[in-house]
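Database export, one record per block. Field names are fixed; values are copied verbatim from the stored entry.
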Amino acid sequence: MEHYDVAVIGGGSAGLAALKRLSDLNKQAILIEAGKRVGSKNISGGILYSKKPKHGKTYNVEDVYPEFLQDKPVERRITQYMLHATSKDKIFTMNLTAAHEYQANFGYSVLLNKLDGWFAKQAGESAERQGGGIVSGVHVRSLSWQDEKTVIETDELEPFEAKAVIAADGVNSEIAEMTGARAKFTPEQLYQGVKVIVKLPEEIIEQRFKIGPDEGVAHLFAGDVTLNHIGGGFLYTNLDTLSVGAVYHYDSLMTRPSEPYTLINALLKNPLVAEFIKDQVAIKEEIDKNLPKEEQLRTRFAVSKLIKTWNDLRDSYYSHASKKKLIESGKYKSEEEIRARLDSVQNELATKYDTKFVNDYVELEYGAKLVPDGKRCAMKKPYNKNILFVGDAAGRGVFIGPRIEGLNVGIDDAVRAADAVARAIDRNNFSTQYMGEFYSHSIDQSPYTRDMNEIDKDYLKIFLDAARDVPKDIIGQRYGMVFKLMSSGTLRGLAVGFANILGYDRLLPLVESEETYVQVPIELAEKTGRQVQASYEPAIPTIAQRIAGLKYDDDRISHIKVLNPKSEFMRKIVTLCPTVCYSMEGGGGVTLQHEACIECGTCAKETDWHHPRGEKGVIYQYG
């Protein structure tokens, strides 16, 4: 049987940070990842932050990866952070950039396939120097203990032993379930997020959002786009794509079930969002059926080839690096020559083949995941025997109003876990009292833990300052007193102190309500918002088209088993599954077709749920 000092389970940002830290501390570690390629199973909103807290220390991405700021495996540095209240064609906007920058070194928009792929290269090379490394395409099936060591069994490899385990296998952690470290998270403890990647050329993004080449914008949305659910939408600018998504309290969706794709569709139809994602799209005309078959085939091939040429050349023309490369290669002499060739191809398509060029948008990828609400589900003791839980697997994340942080929390957890394991290896003591409690104490010292448990009055002041133009008659009786208390520095400190004594458990039902996320934003938009008109109606893909656009390596063996097909929960899952894997059968029960599953775990609470076997299931191209 193979033996390792440490096994890290899960190849997301947290697991890779743990592997890198352990290797840098000269410890032998192996990382097990179910995906064929690291990053292919991961999805995030997402923004990766680096923080500089007033009290305590966070371990940031650049601490773990010194080359990070030089290589920049990211999309755009977010320099503007806006919150929009919506009602039909009316928009009221608040600038929350100061809140976004609060205690932050930076925040970059990221796509996890690219980001985690870069992390994997750095961490893997470091681990190999210590006799470890990354093993992808492997799914952990069970864990057991023999002589104080953990025996790990997988679907693909022979069993192997590890002295310690770091569980970074996500919000639906199988390691947590199989070891009894914690119960499955409940809808009250989770958010469901659904996201699409929208194609938009680099320089068009910069022109439309009025930003520079290394700048980006984040837009958040509340109001009628929520379809009366507690949560909201987001749009983040990437290098040459947009991440557009909707994130909602899972229990709110349970109370009033809505198909996840209808929530993202509602956001895409908003006139402001529609104008943000708008692009020029080539539409093929129907080929004359009276032509000979051979001529029809030749025409179809010629049109497809020309449209591909037009798209590729257009993307290059609006890309700083690609345009420069085309000129330096000698293929084109100048930017004007590239433009002339682009216009020529477009003209040929329009005049010779009747191709139409219309305003629309292009989706590249659809995805979904569950997100833990750290205020409600962070593990109090994030360990079990010689296993330490990090990031989503430990239920940790900072979600406070417009503040949404998960990736940086997982990296901070991972460093603390790696340090605890390295200390245990040095003393050959992997007991819960020595390793587990040390890690738990370190987690308690993290500024992120404080953020999950206490209100930061300085952050609250920044948010309230941004809301100073909100008419007080719209805020209503519930929030009027809060604003009055917070307007005074002395009273603000007393009020926040009293609120922290009460605790989040008592405050959250007051703040995270339909009134906050739906009614007040709608009234704000209707009474004080500006009017925004969309210049077109987006042709939104059906859910069947979105699923067809995803890449899968299908597994004939289902990784999910329905336990009670007639339960109320499973009846609601028929609606709430993002890829419509469930349907009602004749006898009133629920039946599963797992082939389209994107492994979000929405159904996990009342199913026997596992990740697919190694290399099987969904393969995200962007994440």
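Remark 1: DSSP finds 24 helices and 28 strands in the chain.
Remark 2: The radius of gyration is 25 Å.
End of record.
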